[in-house]
Amino acid sequence: MFDTEIIESQVLGTLLLDPTLVRDTVTVTNADMFMSAMHKNIFVMLQKLNDRNIEATLNNVAIHFSNQIHKVGGIGYLSEMMGSVPSVNQFNYTLSKFLEFDARRKFNHLLETYKGIVSDPVETDFEEILNEFEQKALAIRPKSLEKESRIDGLVDWYEDLELKMADPTRAYGMMTGYTGLDALTLGFQRADFFVLGARTSMGKSAVANELAGNAAKKGLKVAMFSLEMNKGQIYNRFVASMCQIPLQDLRTGRVPLEKRDNIGIAMGIISGITINDQRGVTADYIASEMRRMKRQEGLDMVIIDYLQEIMEPSEKNDNTGSALHRVCQKIRIAAKECDCFVLGLSQLKQDIDARQQKRPIISDLTGSAAIAAVADGIILLYRDEYYNPDTAEPGILEVNLAKQRNGPTGLVKLKYDKVYQTITNNYF
User: Fold this and answer.
1) Residues forming beta bridges with residue 380, ordered by sequence position
2) Which of 67, 268, 337, 365 has the fewest CB within 10 Å, making it most exposed?
């Protein structure tokens, strides 16, 4: 399908002309990428010399492979390859085309493989096929030279630093509107994966909804994967907060006429939030949906309620937290791939309710080891009023930023109104 003999010859000829290129080249190529058996063997020779820290010159190939060199055309053919190279300075372009041809072959093979699979609707699940195909297709993408990518990344970092020095507000991510929390995080940063943990009735869903609503009001693209509540229940909570209508009144339809215009405004905001309430989904499905949304309409923030409900196929030698660890890893990778912030809600262990000190710590998360190892940040919620009705701080929600990989930790107190499902700054 692809006649790559010329490009293969130029790659190998350039390596013989400039052996300093061999070390970087063998990190992004392998012998199987060469279609010509002779070229495959020449590459293996160069690779072996590199492994032995011997310069891969034509002379050293002749010395160290004297008994085999005749099988690859001899010195004459190697010299001919070297003479076919237009310019050593064009090697990056030559190598990139070589990698592209290899990727095209692999992609063509992948398409042929899946033709038969897709045509059998009985034996295969279509969603599973799409997710699997997408992952394999992405894995085919040609690698860049690591040396080149390091330089590019460093230049990008410095350019970003200069922009921040000129305008410090560029350091800010997606601001929540909660002053104390924003002071700690500088706003939620793209590619970060945070976990929000709390016991039942602490306000976990209210916080998630407020964050989603505040982001949507600013024009950010928000998606919610709700594995616990259905869309109707989520809409009730959004409207209760945005329109100041008691949640119970919305559930029973007791809505004052003067509030209906406000509901229309709230619906306009909520319609900008993609809500997926499918149950029993996998981390691969969520990651795939995130990539689709990023491609089609953009994606800035994702909220998942909640992590322990995500299905994960078991693997050999799984222990208690292995599946959850894989779920968190896949979600964090998706956050980076989609360049968006992801907040995953988490259950806490019931043991908290039985002990004297009920403020949660990281180890109280269900599957804490799996979550703590992967998450960029962990937020834990506590309302003393839930356990102590006579508390000195009624209506106060403690937001404990217990872990932040790239910033400080700290405790912030906010006002929580359970009737209206609102979270506001506590200025008193």
Assistant:
1) 197, 400
2) 67
Angle formed at CA 72 by CA 66 and CA 76, multiple of 5 degrees: 80
Check the CA dihedral 224-230-234-237 and report its sign.
negative
- Write the pLDDT tens digit of every residue in 87-106: 888 898 899 889 988 888 88
Q: Which helix (H) or strand (E) holds 58?
A: helix 58-64
DSSP-assigned letters across all residues of 250-316: HHHT---GGGHHHHHHHHHHHTTEEEE--SS-BHHHHHHHHHHHHHHT---EEEEE-GGGSB----T
- The CA angle 384-386-388, to the nearest 5 degrees, is 60
Is pTM, for the whole model, over 0.90? no
Alpha helices by DSSP H, 140-223: 146-166, 179-185, 204-217
Distant-in-sequence, close-in-space partners of 32: CB < 8 Å, separation ≥ 6: 40
pLDDT of residue 84: 87
| Residue that has been written with the tokens 């292995």 in this structure | 322
Whether the pLDDT of residue 71 is over 90: the answer is: no
Sheet holding 396-404, edge to edge: 273-276, 222-226, 301-305, 341-346, 193-197, 377-382, 396-404, 410-417, 422-425
Mean pLDDT across 312-323:
73
